[in-house]
Amino acid sequence: xxxxxxxxxxxxxxxxxxxxxxxxxxxxxxxxxxxxxxxxxxxxxxxxxxxxxxxxxxxxxxxxxxxxxxxxxxxxxxxxxxxxxxxxxxxxxxxxxxxxxxxxxxxxxxxxxxxxxxxxxxxxxxxxxxxxxxxxxxxxxxxxxxxxxxxxxxxxxxxxxxxxxxxxxxxxxxxxxxxxxxxxxxxxxxxxxxxxxxxxxxxxxxxxxxxxxxxxxxxxxxxxxxxxxxxxxxxxxxxxxxxxxxxxxxxxxxxxxxxxxxxxxxxx
Length: 268
Fold this sequence. Notes:
This protein is α/β, with parallel strands linked by helices. The strands form two sheets. The chain has a ten-stranded mixed β-sheet with strand order 7-6-8-5-4-3-9-10-12-11. It has a two-stranded antiparallel ribbon with strand order 1-2. The longest helix is centred in the N-terminal third of the chain and has 18 residues, at 15-32. Helix content is 32%, strand content 22%. The chain contains nine helices and twelve strands. α2 (15-32) runs antiparallel to α3 and α2 (15-32) runs parallel beside α4.
Protein backbone atom coordinates (compact mmCIF):
# COMPACT_ATOMS: atom_id res chain seq x y z
CA UNK A 1 0.00 0.00 0.00
CA UNK A 2 2.78 2.43 0.96
CA UNK A 3 4.51 2.16 -2.42
CA UNK A 4 1.30 3.26 -4.19
CA UNK A 5 0.88 6.23 -1.85
CA UNK A 6 4.52 7.25 -2.44
CA UNK A 7 4.01 6.86 -6.21
CA UNK A 8 1.04 9.26 -6.12
CA UNK A 9 2.80 12.03 -4.22
CA UNK A 10 5.91 11.68 -6.42
CA UNK A 11 3.76 12.99 -9.31
CA UNK A 12 2.16 15.93 -7.48
CA UNK A 13 3.01 19.44 -8.79
CA UNK A 14 4.92 21.57 -6.26
CA UNK A 15 5.76 18.22 -4.70
CA UNK A 16 8.22 19.49 -2.10
CA UNK A 17 5.70 21.94 -0.62
CA UNK A 18 2.83 19.45 -0.69
CA UNK A 19 5.04 16.67 0.65
CA UNK A 20 6.61 18.61 3.53
CA UNK A 21 3.70 20.88 4.57
CA UNK A 22 0.66 18.69 3.96
CA UNK A 23 1.28 15.07 2.99
CA UNK A 24 3.84 14.00 5.58
CA UNK A 25 2.42 15.83 8.61
CA UNK A 26 -0.97 14.18 7.94
CA UNK A 27 0.17 10.80 6.66
CA UNK A 28 2.87 10.60 9.32
CA UNK A 29 0.32 11.30 12.04
CA UNK A 30 -1.91 8.50 10.69
CA UNK A 31 1.03 6.12 10.65
CA UNK A 32 1.82 7.06 14.23
CA UNK A 33 -1.68 6.30 15.55
CA UNK A 34 -1.00 2.61 16.43
CA UNK A 35 2.26 3.31 18.25
CA UNK A 36 2.01 6.90 19.50
CA UNK A 37 5.75 7.46 19.10
CA UNK A 38 5.39 11.20 18.42
CA UNK A 39 4.23 12.96 21.58
CA UNK A 40 1.34 15.48 21.44
CA UNK A 41 0.42 14.22 17.96
CA UNK A 42 -2.32 16.71 17.04
CA UNK A 43 -0.40 19.75 18.28
CA UNK A 44 2.79 18.56 16.56
CA UNK A 45 0.97 17.92 13.27
CA UNK A 46 -0.55 21.41 13.23
CA UNK A 47 2.78 23.02 14.02
CA UNK A 48 4.50 21.05 11.25
CA UNK A 49 1.88 22.33 8.79
CA UNK A 50 1.82 25.98 9.92
CA UNK A 51 5.02 26.94 11.72
CA UNK A 52 7.75 28.82 9.83
CA UNK A 53 10.61 28.60 12.35
CA UNK A 54 12.52 25.65 13.76
CA UNK A 55 10.63 23.59 16.31
CA UNK A 56 11.25 20.72 18.68
CA UNK A 57 9.48 17.37 18.58
CA UNK A 58 9.34 14.94 21.49
CA UNK A 59 9.52 11.24 20.68
CA UNK A 60 8.84 8.32 22.99
CA UNK A 61 11.95 6.38 24.07
CA UNK A 62 14.19 9.16 22.70
CA UNK A 63 15.97 10.88 25.58
CA UNK A 64 15.98 14.42 24.16
CA UNK A 65 13.68 16.33 21.77
CA UNK A 66 14.84 16.71 18.18
CA UNK A 67 14.83 20.03 16.33
CA UNK A 68 13.64 20.31 12.74
CA UNK A 69 12.60 22.85 10.10
CA UNK A 70 8.88 22.63 9.21
CA UNK A 71 8.17 22.73 5.50
CA UNK A 72 11.44 20.97 4.62
CA UNK A 73 12.59 17.40 4.03
CA UNK A 74 13.22 17.22 7.80
CA UNK A 75 9.52 16.32 8.14
CA UNK A 76 9.45 13.09 6.09
CA UNK A 77 12.79 12.17 7.65
CA UNK A 78 11.24 12.48 11.11
CA UNK A 79 8.63 9.88 10.24
CA UNK A 80 10.94 7.61 8.24
CA UNK A 81 13.43 7.36 11.12
CA UNK A 82 11.31 7.44 14.28
CA UNK A 83 7.88 6.12 13.21
CA UNK A 84 8.62 3.78 10.30
CA UNK A 85 11.95 2.94 11.96
CA UNK A 86 13.71 2.30 8.68
CA UNK A 87 16.96 1.69 10.56
CA UNK A 88 15.47 -0.85 12.95
CA UNK A 89 18.14 -3.40 12.13
CA UNK A 90 19.35 -6.39 14.12
CA UNK A 91 23.14 -6.64 14.40
CA UNK A 92 24.54 -9.96 15.56
CA UNK A 93 26.21 -8.35 18.56
CA UNK A 94 25.89 -5.13 20.55
CA UNK A 95 27.54 -2.45 18.37
CA UNK A 96 30.51 -0.49 19.70
CA UNK A 97 31.34 1.55 16.56
CA UNK A 98 28.84 3.03 14.09
CA UNK A 99 29.38 5.28 11.07
CA UNK A 100 26.45 7.42 9.89
CA UNK A 101 27.48 8.78 6.49
CA UNK A 102 24.99 11.28 5.12
CA UNK A 103 23.82 12.17 8.61
CA UNK A 104 21.64 15.11 7.49
CA UNK A 105 20.23 16.72 10.68
CA UNK A 106 21.12 13.80 12.93
CA UNK A 107 17.90 11.80 13.26
CA UNK A 108 19.57 8.48 12.45
CA UNK A 109 22.50 9.19 14.78
CA UNK A 110 20.03 10.06 17.57
CA UNK A 111 18.02 6.89 16.85
CA UNK A 112 21.19 4.77 17.05
CA UNK A 113 22.42 6.57 20.18
CA UNK A 114 19.20 5.73 22.00
CA UNK A 115 19.08 2.16 20.77
CA UNK A 116 22.79 1.44 21.21
CA UNK A 117 23.89 3.80 24.01
CA UNK A 118 27.31 2.13 24.43
CA UNK A 119 28.33 2.65 20.80
CA UNK A 120 30.63 5.40 19.52
CA UNK A 121 28.86 7.03 16.56
CA UNK A 122 30.53 9.09 13.84
CA UNK A 123 28.01 11.33 12.04
CA UNK A 124 29.22 12.80 8.73
CA UNK A 125 27.40 15.61 6.87
CA UNK A 126 28.79 18.02 4.24
CA UNK A 127 26.10 20.74 4.03
CA UNK A 128 26.37 23.69 6.45
CA UNK A 129 22.73 24.23 7.48
CA UNK A 130 22.18 20.50 7.97
CA UNK A 131 25.41 20.23 9.94
CA UNK A 132 24.32 23.05 12.26
CA UNK A 133 21.14 21.12 13.13
CA UNK A 134 23.08 17.86 13.32
CA UNK A 135 25.25 19.41 16.03
CA UNK A 136 22.21 20.81 17.82
CA UNK A 137 20.39 17.48 17.80
CA UNK A 138 23.39 15.47 18.99
CA UNK A 139 25.01 17.82 21.53
CA UNK A 140 23.34 15.99 24.41
CA UNK A 141 24.86 12.66 23.33
CA UNK A 142 28.55 12.42 24.30
CA UNK A 143 28.98 9.23 22.26
CA UNK A 144 28.26 11.03 18.94
CA UNK A 145 31.09 12.77 17.08
CA UNK A 146 30.00 15.07 14.24
CA UNK A 147 32.25 15.72 11.23
CA UNK A 148 31.46 18.35 8.60
CA UNK A 149 32.67 16.48 5.54
CA UNK A 150 31.66 14.24 2.70
CA UNK A 151 32.46 10.53 2.74
CA UNK A 152 34.93 9.64 -0.03
CA UNK A 153 37.64 7.13 -0.86
CA UNK A 154 40.47 9.44 0.25
CA UNK A 155 41.08 12.67 2.14
CA UNK A 156 40.62 15.48 -0.39
CA UNK A 157 38.41 18.55 -1.00
CA UNK A 158 34.83 18.25 -2.25
CA UNK A 159 32.34 20.68 -3.76
CA UNK A 160 28.58 20.47 -3.21
CA UNK A 161 27.19 20.64 -6.74
CA UNK A 162 23.53 21.41 -5.98
CA UNK A 163 23.47 23.87 -3.06
CA UNK A 164 20.74 25.87 -4.80
CA UNK A 165 18.17 23.05 -4.48
CA UNK A 166 15.04 23.77 -2.45
CA UNK A 167 15.10 20.58 -0.43
CA UNK A 168 17.41 19.90 2.50
CA UNK A 169 18.37 16.39 1.43
CA UNK A 170 19.99 15.01 -1.70
CA UNK A 171 23.14 17.16 -1.66
CA UNK A 172 25.73 15.75 -4.06
CA UNK A 173 29.48 16.27 -4.06
CA UNK A 174 32.40 16.05 -6.46
CA UNK A 175 36.15 16.37 -6.05
CA UNK A 176 37.59 19.87 -6.53
CA UNK A 177 40.82 21.83 -6.17
CA UNK A 178 39.01 25.08 -5.30
CA UNK A 179 37.64 26.50 -2.06
CA UNK A 180 34.54 28.47 -1.16
CA UNK A 181 31.17 28.29 0.59
CA UNK A 182 30.21 25.25 -1.48
CA UNK A 183 33.30 23.21 -0.54
CA UNK A 184 34.05 20.86 2.33
CA UNK A 185 36.64 18.34 3.36
CA UNK A 186 36.38 14.68 2.43
CA UNK A 187 36.94 11.92 4.94
CA UNK A 188 37.65 8.25 4.28
CA UNK A 189 36.52 5.27 6.33
CA UNK A 190 40.09 3.98 6.52
CA UNK A 191 41.12 7.27 8.14
CA UNK A 192 38.21 7.15 10.59
CA UNK A 193 39.17 3.67 11.72
CA UNK A 194 42.72 4.86 12.28
CA UNK A 195 41.66 8.02 14.15
CA UNK A 196 39.27 6.14 16.43
CA UNK A 197 41.61 3.21 16.98
CA UNK A 198 38.96 0.73 15.82
CA UNK A 199 39.57 -2.62 14.15
CA UNK A 200 36.04 -3.08 12.79
CA UNK A 201 32.79 -1.26 12.01
CA UNK A 202 29.69 -2.72 13.60
CA UNK A 203 27.22 -0.66 11.54
CA UNK A 204 27.96 1.46 8.47
CA UNK A 205 24.93 3.46 7.34
CA UNK A 206 25.70 4.93 3.91
CA UNK A 207 23.27 7.38 2.27
CA UNK A 208 25.58 9.69 0.33
CA UNK A 209 23.56 10.72 -2.74
CA UNK A 210 25.61 9.01 -5.43
CA UNK A 211 29.09 9.31 -3.88
CA UNK A 212 28.91 5.55 -3.31
CA UNK A 213 30.35 5.43 -6.85
CA UNK A 214 33.63 6.94 -5.63
CA UNK A 215 33.54 5.40 -2.15
CA UNK A 216 33.56 1.83 -3.48
CA UNK A 217 35.96 2.50 -6.36
CA UNK A 218 39.18 2.07 -4.37
CA UNK A 219 40.85 1.98 -0.93
CA UNK A 220 38.44 -0.65 0.37
CA UNK A 221 40.52 -2.02 3.22
CA UNK A 222 37.63 -1.14 5.56
CA UNK A 223 35.04 -3.26 3.74
CA UNK A 224 36.01 -6.72 5.14
CA UNK A 225 36.05 -5.10 8.59
CA UNK A 226 32.37 -4.10 8.33
CA UNK A 227 29.90 -6.35 10.15
CA UNK A 228 26.66 -4.73 8.97
CA UNK A 229 26.04 -2.16 6.25
CA UNK A 230 22.88 -0.24 5.35
CA UNK A 231 23.13 1.52 1.99
CA UNK A 232 20.77 3.46 -0.28
CA UNK A 233 21.67 3.64 -3.96
CA UNK A 234 21.19 6.76 -6.11
CA UNK A 235 21.46 5.61 -9.71
CA UNK A 236 18.47 7.82 -10.53
CA UNK A 237 20.57 10.85 -9.52
CA UNK A 238 23.97 9.60 -10.65
CA UNK A 239 23.69 6.81 -13.24
CA UNK A 240 25.96 3.86 -12.59
CA UNK A 241 26.74 4.86 -9.01
CA UNK A 242 25.85 1.42 -7.61
CA UNK A 243 28.11 -0.59 -9.96
CA UNK A 244 31.36 -0.12 -7.97
CA UNK A 245 29.51 -1.33 -4.88
CA UNK A 246 28.38 -4.55 -6.54
CA UNK A 247 31.87 -5.10 -7.94
CA UNK A 248 33.37 -4.54 -4.47
CA UNK A 249 31.12 -6.96 -2.56
CA UNK A 250 31.16 -9.70 -5.21
CA UNK A 251 32.31 -12.92 -3.57
CA UNK A 252 32.09 -11.50 -0.04
CA UNK A 253 30.00 -13.39 2.49
CA UNK A 254 27.18 -10.98 3.24
CA UNK A 255 23.56 -11.93 3.78
CA UNK A 256 21.48 -9.35 1.90
CA UNK A 257 17.93 -8.11 2.37
CA UNK A 258 15.97 -4.93 1.66
CA UNK A 259 14.04 -2.53 3.88
CA UNK A 260 12.32 0.36 2.11
CA UNK A 261 14.95 1.90 -0.18
CA UNK A 262 17.84 0.44 1.77
CA UNK A 263 19.90 -2.65 1.07
CA UNK A 264 21.12 -4.28 4.29
CA UNK A 265 24.18 -6.53 4.32
CA UNK A 266 25.08 -8.66 7.33
CA UNK A 267 28.44 -10.43 7.46
CA UNK A 268 27.99 -14.20 7.65
